[in-house]
Design a protein that fits this description.
Elements (H helix, E strand, L loop, with lengths): L8 E4 L2 H8 L25 E4 L11 H9 L6 H14 L5 H7 L24 H11 L4 E6 L2 E5 L1 H9 L15 E5 L3 H10 L4 E6 L12 E7 L24 E7 L2 E8 L4 E8 L1 H9 L5 E5 L19 H8 L4 E3 L3 H13 L8 E2 L13 H6 L11 H5 L7 H11 L4 H16 L4 E2 L6 H9 L5 H19 L1 H18 L5 H18 L18 H8 L12 H21 L1 H9 L8 E7 L4 E7 L12 H6 L1 E2 L12 E3 L1 H32 L3 H26 L6 E3 L16 E6 L14 E5 L2 E5 L6 H17 L7 E5 L3 E5 L12 H15 L4 E5 L8 H18 L2 E5 L16 E10 L2 E13 L4 H7 L4 H14 L11 E6 L22 H27 L9 E3 L3 E2 L8 E7 L5 E6 L2 H9 L8 E7 L2 H14 L33 H18 L4
Parallel strand pairs: 3-6, 8-11, 10-13, 11-12, 19-23, 22-26, 22-27, 24-25, 25-26
Antiparallel strand pairs: 1-2, 3-4, 4-5, 6-7, 8-9, 9-10, 14-31, 15-16, 16-18, 17-18, 20-21, 20-23, 27-28, 28-29, 30-34, 32-33, 32-34
Helix pairs in contact: 4-6, 13-24, 14-17, 14-24, 15-24, 16-17, 16-18, 16-24, 17-24, 18-23, 20-23, 30-32
C-alpha cells in the first residue's frame, strides 16, 4: 500500500481484528509475481482501508467508517483475493500523476476496486455498477468496458488503466469525492482496445441491446466479445465495408522440465491448437522465448528442482540463462501435468468451457535439426541484432512484410527435416524456371479466418478474400506448369499447420468453398445493385442508407427486400416532390433584394432524414398563391428524442411517414444481408481446416517466390543438399561426408554489385583457423554458418556452387560477454557455452567457434582450447575453430582429422595487408599494431608497444612481416574484389469476354509490329516476340529476373500503356499499386539488352495507335537514341548454324501458337 497518497490515512487491520470483526480468519494466499512463492515470506492478506478527510458526525463516527462496517459483510473468497493481488501488482507500474490520483481512491473490497462511500460508488443491486461487477466476476483479469449510450465506460481499477495506457481523461476531472471513472466514445473503441492489448491487457466488451425501451427502464446488456493481445475485437465487423488489421495471435506459453531437457508448450486460443517441444537446451529455449510474443507466461514447478537443491532455480549454472530471461518478465507458477494443466489455465484465462478441445499440432523432432541456439541466431541476424547483418533482409526483397517474413524466420530458427528441405528447394527451383504467370499468392492470417468464421463476423470483403485464396489454389492445380509446385508445397504446409490433407481433397474442397461463396456473395463486376437516385433528394442520403447492405450479397437472395426499398424510396421522392417542391418554386419565383426568402431540400446526416431548410419564406399575406398550402403543412423537425432540431428545419407528416417506411425497409434489407452473411460463415465453419491449410500454403508459396526473386537478383545458387553417410534411413554410398562451397561470399554483400570477396571451402574435417586481425576470420565463420543454414532449409546460398550435408545442428560460437545478474565473468559464460556445444555435438554437426578461450590467461586458455579441439576431432564433426593462441600448435595434440587453415595476407609497399582469402597453413601475424593505428590509437602508444614487443620477442618476426607455414592456395582462381572499406557490415464476368478479346488483339498486333524489327536485328527471316500474358491477380515468374523486357499494360479503361524495364515483376507491382489499376493485365516479352527494349518500346508506341488502339503514353514515342541495335553476340562473331536453325524453328512454333494454328 505504499502507493497511497499522503492525504489518505492508511490503516492496517491485523488478522486477529478481522477474525473478531468478521468471525472469519483469512486463509493463506499464493501470489503471482516474478518470483517463486517459496522465495517470498508466507504472509496473510491484510485489509487496507483508506479514510478520506471528512467531517465527523455528532456521534463521532465518520460516514466512511459506517460504510466500512456495512461493507465488511461482503467477504471475498480466496480466488477473488488472488485476482485483486494480481491487479495491485500491475497498478504499481502506473506512472502518470492522474492515474496515481485515481489509484488512491480505490478500495479492494470487490473486483472493481470501488469505494462505495464515494460519490457514484454505490453497488446497490440493479444499478449499473452492480451490473458491471457481475460481468467483471466472469472475467476478473480483463479490463471491462461497458457500453453506456455513445460511450464505453470503465470504473475503478479498469478506469485507472484506461487513463494510464489509452491516454484518456477521467470523468469528472480529478475531484477526490468520486470513484474513478473513464471511457471512450464509440467511434474510438478500436484505438482504445489497441492501446490496452498492446500493453498486454485483455479486454471484455459489454454491449447494450439497441432499440427503444420503456420509460425508466434499464437497457439489457451482454458480453459481445473480448480483445486479447494478438486477437482483436471483431463484434460488428460483418456490418462494415472495411477490413480489420489482424495481428498474428499471441500464444500462452508454458515452460517445464523433463528428463530430456527443457519443454516449451504453446497454446493458441484463437486457433484452438497447442504444441509441445521437448528436449530443448537452455539456449534454444531462450531463443524461442525471445522470438515469441506471448500473452501469458507460465513456469512449471519442475524448473525449481535443480541439482543445487535451492529454491531459486538456476542459481549455480544450468538454468541461469533462463532465469535471467524470465526474471524480468511477468509470469506465474503452475504445477501438475505440464500440458494438461496449461490447457486448464488457458480455458480459465479466456473463459472457455471445459468441453472446448484443443488440437495437437506438435511436429515430431525426429530426423529434424535442432533449433538454432541464441548465439547462433543473433550472430547471423536471424534474430535482428544491432551491428550484425540481418539475414532476413537479404533473403527476401525489401517490400516483403508480414506472414511470409515470419515463415522464413521461423524456418531458419527451426530447420526442417531433409524431406521438407528438399521439397522447399525443389519448389524454389520450379518457381525459378517456370515461364507462365503465377498467382499473386494472397496472404491471409489463419487466425483471422478462424475467429471471423467462428464468431460469424466475416463480411463480404473477407469472403471475397477467402474466395481469392481458394481460387488461387485451383489456379495452381489447373495449370500443368504450376501443378507440381502445388504438390511440392503440400508437405511444408502440413508441417506448419499440423493438418494431413492430400491434393485431391484440397482441390475438391476449394472448388466447393469457391462455389458456396459465389452463390451468396456479390462479386466484383456485378452491377445489378445500384444505389437509389431521385432528382429531388440529395444523393448522399441514399448513399449512406443503402451502401451498408447493397453489393454485399447477390440480389436474387434479397429480391423482395430490394423491391420494398425501391418502392419506399419512390414514395419518399413523391412525398418530397409534392410537399417541398412547390415551396422551392415559390421561393425561386420571388424577386427580392437582400434578406429575401431562402429554402432548400437537404440531407440531415445526423438524423438520417431529408428535410426542408429555409427562412423568411412564410407569406405576410395569405393570398392562395401556389405553394401556400404546402407551407401551411410544414412543422418543425424533431430528433429521435422529440426535441426540435432547429428553427430552420421543417418537415411534413407525409414526408415523415415516407421516411419511416423507407428506414424500415432498409433495416429489413440490411438484416437479411447480415443473416445471409452469418449463415455463410456457419456453413464455412465445417471447412475451417481446409481454409487454414490453403491460406498457409499460399503464405509459404509467397515466401518462397519472394526468396527466389531476390536470390536470382543477387546471383545466388541452389546447393546440392545431401544426407550424411550412415544416416539410419539412408545407407546409400552417395551420401556426403563433408561440405564443399565454391565461390562463397558474405551473405550481406551484394554479388550483383561486385563488392564481395569469394572463398572456396572444402571441409572434410575440423579446421583450426588463424589469421591477422581484420583478416576475415569472423566473417568467414558467419558466412559459412549462414550458407549451411540456408542449405539445410532448402534455400539459395551466396556461392557459385555448393554441396551441403543435412546437418543435425549448426552452432556458431562467437564472443561472450559477462553476466553480472548471474555472477558470471565472460570466461565463465564462454565455458558454459562450450559445455552446451560439446554435449550437443555429433559427427553430423557443424561447429564454428571464433577466437576460442579469449577471456582467460593465455597458457591455460591455450591448453583448454587444445583439449576442446581434441574432443571435437574425436567426435568427428565438421567445423572451424579460429584462434590467436598460436601456442596451440606447440601442444602434443592427439588429432586425426584436424587441418590448419589461415586467412591470407600480403606484403605491399612495406605494409602487411589482409587478402581475406582462405589458404592452407598457419598465420602467426596478428597485425595488431596496424589495426590499432588504423583505428586511431595515438602513435606514441603504438611506438612504445613496438618497443616492448621487440624486447620480449627479439628472436621472432619483427612487426610488419608475416609468415604462412605450409602455404598452398585452396580453391579456384576466380576473380575477387576487395570490399569497400567504407561499407558498413550490416551483417489476376461481366466484361471478361471483352477484356479477353482486347488481349488477343493487342497480342496479335504486338507480334506483327515487332516481327519485322526483330528479324532485322537478328538477321533472320522469321522472328516473332514470345508474348506472355499476365492476367489480373497474376504476376510474372522469377525467370524474368535480370532480363530486359517490353510490356503493354491493358488498363481497366481499355487504354494501353507501353513500357520497357529490367524488372518486369517490380514494374507490374508498381503499376497495380496506383488507384484503379489493381485489375490491370499485362503483355510482355523478353529481349536482349535495354537498348533493344527501348527501340521496340518506341516502335510499339508509334505503331499501335495506327491500328486503332488508344495509348496513355503517346509522348514516349519520341525517343530516338537507343544505343547498339544488334545483340552483342552478332558483332564480329561466328554464328552457330544449328543454333540459328533451332531459334528459327522455335520462333515459327511461337507464331503458330499466337495465330491459333496447329
Amino acid at each position: 500500500m505504499q502507493w497511497l497518497g499522503s492525504r489518505n490515512a492508511v490503516v492496517y487491520f491485523p488478522k486477529w481484528w478481522c477474525s473478531l470483526a468478521l468471525l472469519h480468519s483469512r486463509p493463506s494466499l499464493r501470489t503471482y509475481t516474478s518470483f517463486p512463492p517459496s522465495s517470498l515470506p508466507n504472509r496473510r492478506f491484510e485489509r487496507t482501508y483508506c479514510f478520506k478527510d471528512r467531517k465527523v458526525s455528532p456521534r463521532g463516527i465518520t460516514k466512511s467508517s459506517k460504510k466500512v462496517k456495512s461493507t465488511t459483510a461482503n467477504v471475498l473468497d480466496d480466488k477473488d483475493m488472488l485476482h485483486l493481488t494480481w491487479w495491485k501488482e500491475r497498478l504499481q507500474k502506473c506512472r502518470k500523476p492522474s492515474t496515481i490520483n485515481l489509484i488512491q481512491r480505490l478500495m479492494y473490497f470487490n473486483l472493481l476496486g470501488l469505494d462505495d462511500s464515494l460519490r457514484n460508488g454505490s453497488l446497490k443491486e440493479g444499478n449499473l455498477n452492480w451490473e458491471m461487477l457481475q460481468f467483471k466476476s466472469k472475467f476478473p483479469r480483463e479490463v471491462l468496458l461497458c457500453r453506456v449510450g455513445e460511450f464505453y465506460e470503465a470504473i475503478g481499477i479498469d478506469a485507472c488503466l484506461l487513463v494510464e495506457y489509452a491516454g484518456l481523461n477521467p470523468f469528472g476531472g480529478l475531484r477526490s469525492d468520486s470513484v474513478p471513472r473513464a471511457g471512450c466514445p464509440v467511434v474510438n473503441l478500436r484505438q482504445t482496445l489497441d492501446d490496452l492489448t498492446r500493453n498486454g491487457y485483455s479486454v471484455c466488451i459489454v454491449e447494450e441491446v439497441q432499440g427503444p425501451v420503456q420509460a425508466r427502464s434499464r437497457k439489457d446488456r451482454f458480453i459481445s466479445g473480448h480483445a486479447h493481445p494478438g486477437s482483436p475485437y471483431v463484434f460488428g465487423l460483418v456490418e462494415v465495408d472495411h477490413d480489420l488489421d489482424f495481428p498474428e495471435p499471441m500464444p500462452v506459453v508454458g515452460v517445464s522440465r523433463s528428463a530430456r531437457g527443457y519443454c516449451l508448450s504453446l497454446v493458441l486460443e484463437t486457433m484452438k491448437t497447442y504444441s509441445s517441444e521437448d528436449g530443448l537446451t537452455e539456449e534454444a529455449l531462450v531463443t524461442k522465448l525471445r522470438t515469441c510474443r506471448y500473452h501469458h507466461l507460465f513456469l512449471h514447478t519442475s524448473l525449481r528442482q535443480n541439482s543445487s537443491g535451492t529454491c531459486r532455480w538456476g542459481e549455480f549454472g544450468e538454468g541461469g540463462l533462463l532465469w535471467g530471461e524470465c526474471s524480468g518478465r511477468s509470469f506465474e507458477w503452475f504445477g501438475g501435468q505440464p500440458v494438461t494443466d496449461l490447457l486448464f489455465k488457458v480455458k480459465e484465462i479466456y473463459g472457455l468451457d471445459d468441453e472446448v478441445n484443443f488440437r495437437n499440432i506438435t511436429v515430431p523432432s525426429e530426423n529434424r535439426p535442432r533449433p538454432l541456439h541464441l548465439g547462433t541466431a543473433t550472430q547471423i541476424g536471424a534474430i535482428p541484432t544491432e551491428g550484425i547483418p540481418c539475414l532476413l533482409k537479404v533473403l527476401l526483397p525489401s517490400t516483403s512484410t508480414g506472414l511470409p517474413v515470419m515463415y522464413i524466420r521461423d524456418l531458419l530458427l527451426n530447420p526442417p527435416t531433409y524431406e521438407i528441405a528438399s521439397a522447399i528447394q525443389e519448389t524454389c527451383k520450379l518457381m525459378s524456371d517456370v515461364k507462365c504467370p503465377i498467382p499473386e499468392f494472397t496472404c491471409v492470417s489463419s487466425a483471422k479466418l478462424v475467429k471471423l468464421l467462428e464468431q460469424r463476423e466475416a463480411n463480404h470483403i473477407e469472403f471475397c478474400r477467402i474466395k481469392t485464396v481458394v481460387d488461387q489454389i485451383l489456379h495452381l492445380f489447373q495449370k500443368p506448369a504450376l501443378r507440381e509446385i502445388l504438390k511440392l508445397l503440400m508437405d511444408p504446409a502440413s508441417m506448419t499447420t499440423g493438418l494431413k490433407i492430400d491434393v485431391e481433397r484440397l482441390v475438391s474442397e476449394c472448388e466447393l468453398v469457391s462455389r458456396m461463396i459465389s452463390e451468396v456473395v456479390s462479386l466484383d463486376g456485378e452491377s445489378d445493385q445500384k444505389i437509389s437516385s431521385f432528382p429531388n433528394i440529395p444523393s448522399d442520403f441514399f448513399e449512406d442508407m443503402e451502401s451498408s447492405w447493397k453489393c454485399r450479397v447477390k440480389r436474387i437472395h434479397i429480391e423482395d427486400q430490394f423491391v420494398e426499398v425501391d418502392r419506399a424510396a419512390e414514395a419518399l421522392s413523391f412525398a418530397v416532390t409534392e410537399d417541398f417542391l412547390p415551396i422551392l418554386s415559390r421561393i425561386k419565383a420571388t424577386t427580392a433584394p437582400l434578406n429575401g426568402p431562402k429554402g432548400e431540400i437537404l440531407y440531415a446526416r445526423d438524423h438520417e432524414s431529408v428535410w426542408f431548410k429555409g427562412k423568411r419564406f412564410t407569406p405576410t399575406v395569405w393570398a392562395g398563391t401556389p405553394g401556400e398550402e404546402q407551407i401551411k403543412q410544414l412543422r418543425h423537425s424533431l430528433d429521435s428524442k422529440g426535441k426540435k432540431v432547429g428553427e430552420e428545419w421543417y418537415t411534413t407528416m407525409k414526408v415523415e411517414d415516407a421516411l419511416a417506411r423507407y428506414h424500415e425497409a432498409s433495416v429489413k434489407a440490411k438484416a437479411k444481408v447480415l443473416e445471409l452473411l452469418r449463415g455463410l460463415s456457419t456453413e464455412l465453419q465445417t471447412k475451417i481446416n481446409i481454409l487454414v491449410f490453403a491460406s498457409m500454403l499460399l503464405v509459404i508459396a509467397k515466401a518462397l517466390f519472394s526468396h527466389v526473386s531476390e536470390g536470382k537478383r543477387r546471383k545466388w545458387v541452389f546447393p546440392t543438399l545431401s544426407r550424411f553417410k550412415g544416416t539410419e534411413d539412408f545407407n546409400s554410398s552417395d551420401g556426403a561426408t563433408g561440405m564443399k562451397i565454391v565461390g562463397l561470399s558474405p551473405y550481406w554483400f551484394d554479388v550483383a554489385e561486385g563488392c564481395a570477396v569469394h572463398n572456396s571451402v572444402d571441409m572434410q574435417s575440423l579446421f583450426i583457423l588463424t589469421g591477422p586481425n581484420g583478416g576475415g576470420k569472423s566473417s568467414l565463420l558467419r558466412s559459412i554458418c549462414a550458407a549451411a543454414l540456408l542449405g539445410i532449409c532448402g534455400f539459395m546460398v551466396p556461392a557459385d556452387s555448393a554441396l551441403i550435408p543435412h546437418f543435425d545442428s549448426i552452432r556458431l560460437q562467437m564472443k561472450s560477454y559477462d553476466s553480472p545478474a548471474d555472477g558470471k565473468s565472460s570466461f565463465q559464460v564462454e565455458m558454459s557455452e562450450m559445455r552446451s556445444l560439446i554435449n550437443g555435438a555429433t559427427s553430423k554437426s557443424l561447429v564454428l567457434i571464433d577466437e576460442i578461450c579469449r577471456g582467460t590467461e593465455t597458457a591455460k586458455g591455450t591448453c583448454i582450447a587444445g583439449s576442446i579441439v581434441e574432443t571435437l576431432d574425436k567426435i568427428g564433426c565438421l567445423g572451424i575453430i579460429s584462434t590467436h593462441l598460436h601456442g596451440i600448435f606447440d601442444l602434443p595434440l592427439i588429432t586425426k582429422n584436424t587441418v590448419h587453415k589461415a586467412m591470407g595476407s600480403e606484403y605491399v609497399d612495406g605494409q602487411t595487408k589482409p587478402t581475406w582469402k582462405l589458404i592452407d597453413g598457419i598465420c602467426r601475424e596478428s597485425l595488431a599494431f596496424e589495426t590499432a593505428k588504423r583505428e586511431g590509437v595515438p602513435e606514441i602508444i603504438i611506438q612504445r608497444a613496438e618497443e616492448l614487443y621487440s624486447s620480449v620477442h627479439s628472436n621472432e618476426l619483427i612487426p610488419g612481416q608475416h609468415e604462412i607455414i605450409e602455404k598452398s592456395v585452396n580453391g579456384s582462381d576466380e576473380g575477387h574484389l576487395k570490399p569497400d572499406r567504407n561499407s558498413v557490415l550490416v551483417d489476376y464476368d461481366e466484361s471478361m469476354n471483352t477484356t479477353e478479346t482486347l488481349q488477343k488483339k493487342v497480342k496479335s498486333a504486338v507480334v506483327l509490329i515487332c516481327q519485322k524489327k526483330l528479324s532485322e536485328i537478328y538477321e533472320q527471316v522469321s522472328i516473332v516476340a514470345d508474348v506472355v500474358t499476365v492476367l489480373a491477380k497474376e504476376q510474372p515468374p522469377p525467370s524474368t529476373v535480370g532480363h530486359s523486357s517490353v510490356y503493354v499494360m491493358l488498363r481497366p479503361d481499355k487504354r494501353l500503356y507501353v513500357g520497357e524495364t529490367d524488372d518486369i515483376e517490380g514494374r507490374v507491382r508498381s503499376h497495380r499499386s496506383k488507384e484503379g489499376m489493381q485489375k490491370a493485365s499485362f503483355l510482355y516479352f523478353l529481349v536482349t539488352g535495354k537498348s533493344m527494349a527501348r527501340e521496340l518500346e518506341t516502335l510499339l508506341i508509334n505503331q499501335l495507335p495506327n491500328r486503332g488502339f488508344k495509348l496513355e503514353n503517346v509522348a514516349d514515342g519520341k525517343h530516338r537514341c537507343f544505343g547498339p541495335a544488334k545483340p552483342e553476340s552478332n558483332k564480329g562473331k561466328t554464328t552457330d548454324i544449328k543454333q540459328q536453325l533451332a531459334w528459327t524453328l522455335y520462333c515459327d512454333r511461337v507464331l503458330c501458337i499466337v495465330m491459333g494454328l496447329n
